[in-house]
């Protein structure tokens, strides 16, 4: 997947960078490409890892048929997508009468109604007006042409494809045993032993063949500046078929099911099984499986029961606290990354520590996101609204809808501004002031941005890499600063980033891509 590095998925943005129009498939395609880092980039972290080469990779050498297929896979640059919406969805789920609507509104907290009516909806309307005025001078569509899935194949065949379906990685890996019958897996009780497993290093010059998803244990890395091809055998021992995936340059992933139903036992426990606590990032982006009854009924992807909200919140807090750079404590990794310090922002090394959490439109998820960020030492500084539109710029459903809203939100915090780290195993109660903030009563305390994008297939969000870089990681000279990023609950891989979750390979399956 090369040749796209000079293009952009941002179709429009205003001068203030508060309003964006983004093309979803293009954003994900561009996220597969590696843009070379500044010349000063420290490669030590990769050089040491490259010395640990898995013997399993050597099995792929000499398999000319698979190597030829590897070259074919790398030529695929276009992501298969659903057809862009040409008209909004019918409002069949909304209350039919004023009395019915009033009855539903009466059950909503006044604070929640005020948040959407007085804060979010005017913001979205203004953002859409800005795009209409600045972008649509003619009859320009709000998305680029798409490679559309055939009607009979809206979801590509995924039978037996580990990355294309939601599989319970932890239960699969429990079957694998090592010396002393101690499993090296992603299950809860084995987090410590898993984190000590050496990383699996992929080759970009030959197909990387694995007999089973069981072999993708712990951290898997592609240290090359070229795309790697991953070929994974079926779960059946006698299966000769392989599922094929692309692994973007400089990317790493941990294919695991995060233990969300149980709280962290101690501050020393690694919140991400398979990833050591000394691995830290400038940006942590999370898309949690929030409790959602309608989504659970639909069966598109798994979510957590309401009874486990507390444990999920604590897990998010732990990930943010452990894996973000600490600006206030004796953090060796952060000090090393900024040792040349005062000119770091102009010399190419980012000093940011950003945490971002996708939330639903339910009040409790926004509250949980605020708590997780603040308790991990972040100051909530921004809220981004993704408004889903038709290809001519209409919201996909009624903006004032009660049951279905055409937008989702991303809550963003920055470390080192008003936050102090805490023990992630302790339950925290928000103060009245923080409660007022997450309720949207003081929206001036946060920067608001609107991102419009025509939606795609189920569970596929636009990649925010390009927008994140433009907002948080741009130097005064206009070049992108060097930074590290982690996406948790990811459904695709991103060049230069780490990804964690049981669906990290989903949209990197070769069947989603065409030449």
UniProtKB/TrEMBL annotation:
Region feature Disordered, mapped onto this chain: 34-97
Molecular-function GO terms, alphabetical: methyltransferase activity; nucleic acid binding
Classification via InterPro entries: DNA_methylase_N6_adenine_CS, MT-A70-like
Signal peptide: none
GO cellular component, one term: nucleus
Bias (Polar residues): 40-54, 79-94
Record-stated family: Belongs to the MT-A70-like family.
PANTHER family in alphabetical order: N(6)-ADENINE-SPECIFIC METHYLTRANSFERASE METTL4, N6-ADENOSINE-METHYLTRANSFERASE
Protein name: MT-A70 family
Organism of derivation: Penicillium alfredii
